[in-house]
Amino acid sequence: MTRKLFGTDGIRGTANRGDMTAETALRVGMAAALQFTKGTHRHRVVIGKDTRLSGYMLEPALTSGFVSMGMDVILVGPLPTPAVAMLTRSLRADLGVVLSASHNPYQDNGIKLFGPDGYKLSDDVERQIETHVKNGITEHLVMPEKLGRAKRLDDAQGRYTEYVKQTFPKGLRLDGLKIVVDCANGAAYKVAPEVLWELGADVVSIGVDPDGFNINRGCGSTDTDYMRTQVIAHQADIGLALDGDADRILVSDENGELVDGDQIMALIARHLGDRGELKGGGVVATVMSNLGLENYLKSIDLDLIRTQVGDRYVVERMRRDGYNVGGEQSGHVVLGDHSTTGDGLIAALQVLAVIVSEGRAASDICRLFQPLPQCLKNVRFNRGLPLDNAEVKDSIREGEDRLANKGRLLIRKSGTEPLIRVMAEGEDEALVHAVVNDIAAAVERVAG
User: Fold this and answer.
1) Sign of the torsion angle spanned by Cα atoms 310, 315, 316, 322
2) Which superfamily does CATH assign the domain made up of 6-156 to?
C-alpha cells in the first residue's frame, strides 16, 4: 500500500478541507494509538502545536482519538517541533504529535508524528497507520473504565529552554552580542528570545505576536527581508530567522546578508572537525544542497552524502552511518549529538558559539564557500500529474541536454504542497535560469 495521507513531513493540507479536518485528526489519533499501544503499561502521548487558528480545532480532535483508545494525553501547547520530540523521550511517552504546517501560511496545518525514541516515523510505520485508518478501528475502542485522560504540562516551555541552553558550550556566554531573532509569529515566540536572553545576549525580538493568522506572514525563514533590515537598523551582530515550528533556521550577518542552511552546515562541520567532534567524516544533506557545499567539504577532506528531500531521510542516513551533522539548504539543520530532528534554535546556538569562541564577526565566518548559481522555481498545479505529460518530459530532456556536464537538474513534486519544484545549478548562471524558466513554463501550460 502506498501512502496517501502522509507526505515527506507528516500529513499536511488546507485546514478544514480534504484530509486536514477534525474527523481525520480523530481517526489518525485512533489509528496511531492502535499502532503504538503495546504492553500493559499506561500509554501516553505528547501533543504540541504551533500558533495557527486551526490548532484549536485539531488539538481536541486528536485528543479525543487517543483518549478513546485508552491513551493518556499530555498537552504542551505552542512549542517548537523539536521540543515535542525531546519531551516525548523525556516523559517516556509512547508517541509524540505536533500540529503544524511548518513554513506554510496559516490556512494550512499538519500532523507530524514521533516515535517513543523522538524520531519521526518511518515510511513503513506511516503505511501501517494509514491501513488502520482505511480499515476502520471502532472495534478497538476501549471500555469506558479504560478511557485515557488528558492534562496540560505547565512546565513544558521551561524544560525545553533548559535543554537547549545545555547544548551551548560550557564556559561560553553571549554577553556583548546584540541578536535580532525573528520567531515567525510561530511556536518559538516565547522560548527563543528567552534562551538567548538567559545566555547573556541583548535580544531584539520580532515575529513574537501571534494572532492565529500571521504565522510566517512577512516574517520568519521564508521571508527574511524585515529581519535583515532590523539587523542593520539596530546595528546587531547577527540575525536569526526561525520558521513557524522552529525546526528551521536562516541567519543574517551584521550587514544584512543572508546565510542559508548549506553555509550553516559547512560552518558547524568545520568547527566540529577542528575540535575532533565531527562523526562520520562528513555531512548528510539532500539533493537540493548546492554543489559549492560539496566542493568546500572536499577541500577540507570531508564527504557530502546526499539523500532525497526531507529532513527525516537525512536523519535516517545519519543514524544508519553514524554522522552527527546533516540538514537541508532550506535551514533544517540536524545535530545528532543534541536532537533527533531539525532544531533551529540549537543550530543557531552552535553558530553563535563559533562567533564567540573565535571572536570574529558573522560576515567573517558564516560564508565559507561561493555557491554555484542555482535557480529554483515552484509551479503550483491544480490537476493531473504534470511530470507524466509528454510536453513536460520533452522539456526536461532538452534541459538536461543543454546543461550536459556543466551542471545538474532536479525536478520533483513537493511532498507537502501541490507544487512541482524545478531546480538547476551550474557555472553558467544565464543558462541555469533559462533551463528552469523553460521547464517551469511547460509545467504551467499543462497544470494550470
Assistant:
1) positive
2) Alpha-D-Glucose-1,6-Bisphosphate, subunit A, domain 3 (3.40.120.10)
6-156 shares its CATH topology with 177-365: yes
Candidate from 28-42, 56-70, 231-245 with smallest mean pLDDT: 28-42
The pLDDT, as a whole number, for residue 357 is 95
What are the catalytic residues?
A: 102
26 pLDDT band (50/70/90 cuts)? very high
pLDDT tens, position by position, 145-179: 999 999 999 999 999 999 999 999 999 999 999 99
> Three-state secondary structure along 78-119?
ECCHHHHHHHHHHCCCCEEEEECCCCCCCCEEEEEEECCCCC
**Cell numbers found for residue 49:** 502545536
Q: What share of the chain is helix, strand, coil (3-state, %, to 5)?
A: 40, 20, 40
Alpha-carbon span 183 to 166, nearest angstrom: 21
Cα separation, 55 vs 426, in Å, equals: 42
The class that CATH gives domain 374-447 is alpha beta
CB 339 within 8 A of CB 244: no
Name every residue whose Cβ is closer than 8 Å to that of residue 274 and which is 6 or more positions away in sequence. Answer: none
Residues β-bridged to residue 98? 48, 112
Beta partners for residue 133, in sequence order: none
Q: Which residues of 176-204 are buried (b: 16+ CB within 10 A; e: fewer)?
A: ebbbbbbbbbbbbbbbbbbbbeebebbbb
The residue written with cell numbers 478513546 in the block is: 68
Assessment of whether the complete model's pTM goes beyond 0.85: yes
Q: Which residues on neighbouring strands pair with residue 417, listed in sequence order?
A: none
Strands (E), 198-261: 202-206, 238-242, 249-252, 258-259
CA distance 402 to 405: 9
